[in-house]
Design goal:
1 helix; mainly alpha
């Protein structure tokens, strides 16, 4: 009985460790998505402002 409990505890610990690895991987993807979105917003803002400034300066 004690051996079975130890085996189950080991399996639970292993599953928990694997779960933590997956969670960290997902967090990494989320961080990259936030960074990508932020860069794209900045690029869009820069393009819009550059176009506006170019238009204003040329007239």
């Amino acid at each position: 009985m004690a051996k079975q409990v130890q085996e189950k505890a080991g399996l639970i610990a292993q599953a928990q460790a694997e779960y933590e690895v997956i969670v960290e991987e997902v967090r990494g993807y989320c961080q990259k998505a936030r960074e990508w979105t932020s860069v794209n917003r900045l690029d869009t803002w820069n393009r819009e402002n550059y176009a506006t400034k170019s238009y204003i300066c040329s007239h």
